[in-house]
Design goal:
By secondary structure, the protein is α+β, with helices and mostly antiparallel strands. It has one helix and four strands; from the N terminus they run αββββ. It has one helix spanning 30-40, and strands at 46-51, 64-70, 81-82, 87-88. Strands 1, 2, 3 and 4 form a four-stranded mixed beta sheet that branches. The protein starts with 29 loop residues before the first helix and ends with a strand. Belongs to the protease inhibitor I13 (potato type I serine protease inhibitor) family.
């Protein structure tokens, strides 16, 4: 998995098969969630931490996962807690 700056969006019908949802990561630290997603789906090239109340665009990228976290009071959102099921999109 590359870093957050690789934002080339792959769209349907080029999307590879694979796990698309990680409900088991809710309640974990964002950095831990990112590591799990990277190990299970190395084709995911963009993992983005977003505050849980962020307005998210409706575009779909099959190589991107947004991890919604509770960043209130966190210096680094990677240390914040995952508040919603991370999913490809």
């Amino acid at each position: 998995m590359s870093n957050q700056d690789d934002r080339t969006c792959l769209t349907l019908p080029k999307c590879p098969d694979g796990k698309a949802f990680w409900p088991e990561l809710v309640g974990k630290k964002g950095s831990e969630a990112k590591a799990v997603i990277g190990s299970e789906r190395p084709d995911i090239t963009s993992v983005i931490f977003a505050p849980q109340d962020a307005v998210i665009s409706g575009d779909y990228c099959c190589n991107r996962v947004r991890i919604l976290v509770d960043c209130r009071g966190a210096v680094d959102c990677g240390d914040a807690i995952v508040t919603a099921v991370p999913m490809v999109g």
